[in-house]
Amino acid sequence: MDKINKIREYLVKNNLDSAIITKPTNIYYLTNFNCDPHERLLALVIKKDSLAMLVPAMEYESAKAKLKVELELVSYLDTENGFRKLQNKTGNLEKIAIEKDYMTVDWLERISFEFNVSHVESISSHIIDMRKYKSNDEIEKLKKAANLADEAILIARENLKEGITEIELKSIIEFEMKKRYAVNMSFDTIVLFGKNAANPHGESGETKLRKGDLALFDLGVWYEGYASDETRTIFFGTPEKEAEKIYEIVKRANEEAIKHVKPGVSFSYLDKIARDIIEKEGYGEYFNHRLGHGLGLEVHEYPDVSSATSDLLEENMVFTIEPGIYKPGIAGVRIEDDIVVTKDGYMVLTKTEK
């Protein structure tokens, strides 16, 4: 209940009646119940003295089994008004906090009507502040997710052969991960060969692997609700000289940025370290994205590892470091690792050879 109590402290401090949480990842974080409600309403109502959750009827038994907090569980059928059914349990909620970065205008209007709301504030930043520090249990789950991503990269290496297509190898990776470990990928796996990798988030297609190509793999795996995100670029035979040069620059940028991870350093400084290396080699215009992003219950979450933030690294934050160079017609290289900030430095979760 510690997490719930932190929300309650926020309510007291800000003179609010309740928080209505509707983002599934936040509900999982607070209750241990995880589901995809699709277009249906899933809502956790936190009041100063009570706790209730609304779930679609089809999720009721699953919620009962998974919940790790005591609350009043309310279910509704697709033919029922879930908003009204929830209000019947909680009563009116005049002053509420919601996740403005998630709740739709339509839902807010319906909640405002059913609960007689007169005042709305956002609790999004408060929950982000809670989630940005990973507990020991969360870090263990992220380690296991990273270990599984390493296994997926090894499967990719094992199946590199001349003539295989991007989409074939992508399918092998995802099938073998399900077969061996019964896990799901945390996002659509990216497999790109040769010059195709110069499109950072290109779509795997019918391009065949040839001798001398670089093969880029960007993938991740879910483990108990927590995601990994790893990228490796692998030589298949001897690459062209400029492609090999680009690879070595990106590898150096990745490793130098990681070396500077410790509490008190700014995210913008890490971005600058990697970007300066790439710019000094004449490839600055081809590094066209931020250095990294937060990782946890979502593949992309706080923090933003870029020049746009002055935020400082703190112990138990988890994020990626993924510099890249994408020169059209020549090569695309990205190397991505998952990093935990420790008391005195860092821990790299992704272990696959670079």
Structural notes for this entry:
Pfam families: Creatinase_N (PF01321), Peptidase_M24 (PF00557). Residues 140-343 form the Peptidase M24 domain. It comes from Oceanivirga miroungae. The chain is of the alpha+beta class. The protein folds into two domains: 1-131, Creatine Amidinohydrolase, Chain A, domain 1, CATH 3.40.350.10; 133-348, Creatinase/methionine aminopeptidase superfamily (Creatine Amidinohydrolase), CATH 3.90.230. The protein is 36% helix and 22% strand. It is built from ten helices and 18 strands. The strands form six sheets. Strands 4-3-2-1-5-6 form a six-stranded mixed β-sheet, sandwiched between helices. A three-stranded antiparallel β-sheet has the order 7-8-11. A hairpin with a 3-residue loop joins strand 2 (43-47) and strand 3 (51-56). The longest helix is centred in the middle third of the chain and has 23 residues, at 136-158. It starts with a helix and ends in a 6-residue tail after the last strand.
Instruction: Report the end-to-end length measured between terminal Cα atoms.
Output: 42 Å
Unreliable spans are none
The CATH superfamily of the largest domain is: Creatinase/methionine aminopeptidase superfamily
Shape: elongated
Instruction: Report on the biggest sheet.
Output: 6 strands, mixed
- What class, by secondary structure content? alpha+beta
Number of strand elements: 18
Helical run tally = 10
Helix and strand element order: HEHEEHEHEHEHHHEEEEEHHEEEEEEE
Named at the architecture level, the CATH assignment of the largest domain is: Alpha-Beta Complex
Strand order of the largest sheet: 4-3-2-1-5-6
CATH domain fold name of the largest domain: Creatine Amidinohydrolase
Amount of beta strand: 15-25%
Rounded to an integer in angstroms, the radius of gyration calculated over CA atoms is 23 Å
The average pLDDT is 98
Family: Belongs to the peptidase M24B family.
GO molecular function, one term: hydrolase activity
Domain Creatinase N-terminal: 4-131
Keywords: Hydrolase, Manganese, Metal-binding
